[in-house]
Amino acid sequence: MIVVPPLDADAVLWSVPPEERAGRPLLVLLHGYGSHEEDLFGLASFLPEEFVIAAVRAPLSPPFPAPGWSWFPIEGLHARRGEAVTAATERLLTWLDEQTDGPTIGLLGFSQGAVIALQALRLQPTRFAFAVALAGFVADEPVPTDAALAAVRPPVFWGRGARDEVIPEERIAHTSQWLPGHVDLSGRVYPGLAHSVSQDELDDVVLFLRQRLAAKAAPE
């Protein structure tokens, strides 16, 4: 059994104070393995200012001597168990229930954080407006609400580096097959990019986010 502690609400970094958050779209940043909430928060100044940005800290400490925090274990079989991914994602959903009330919520995750972002879409398909998944993948095991996600088909941007040697090829193959059948997929493979984020990728993410804002503002 995977035991995942709650997210630390005091560790969340916000782009604006509480009095400036009401009624604005929320973008939640989810960092990767062995990292921390300050990592992706460094991108906040480059992202559209219409969003309230919240960078959360993953709930688990990797085994010594690895630094930082993680969303789920990657040792042995844990790397393939959807149970661990779901348990961590449920902690994120609980934090959102308790700490946020934004009318629109989007997710942006890197590596493990991208896995959590996509799993959140799977668990609650109608809750999130979109997801950005960078250098990540879809967890292997089916989720009961996958069919509901395929019916909703929220927008997803999936970006990855052509020279990323961290994410196994079979995970990329599975994700490449799975995403088009469940979401409105866009994205790009970046030549020469390893397990990181490039300026070209950041530019594409900003464009994707601006498109989401424009779609939200357009009359129905």
From TrEMBL:
Which GO MF term does the entry hold, naming one? hydrolase activity
Give residue ranges for domain Phospholipase/carboxylesterase/thioesterase. 19-210
InterPro entries, alphabetized = AB_hydrolase_fold, LYPA1-2/EST-like, PLipase/COase/thioEstase
Keywords attached to this Swiss-Prot or TrEMBL record, sorted alphabetically, are: Hydrolase
Q: Name one Pfam family in it.
A: Abhydrolase_2
Q: Which family does it belong to?
A: Belongs to the AB hydrolase superfamily. AB hydrolase 2 family.
Which PANTHER family does the record associate with it? Answer: LYSOPHOSPHOLIPASE-LIKE PROTEIN 1, LYSOPHOSPHOLIPASE-RELATED
Protein's name according to its UniProt entry:
Alpha/beta hydrolase-fold protein
Source organism phylogeny: Bacteria, Bacillati, Actinomycetota, Actinomycetes, Micrococcales
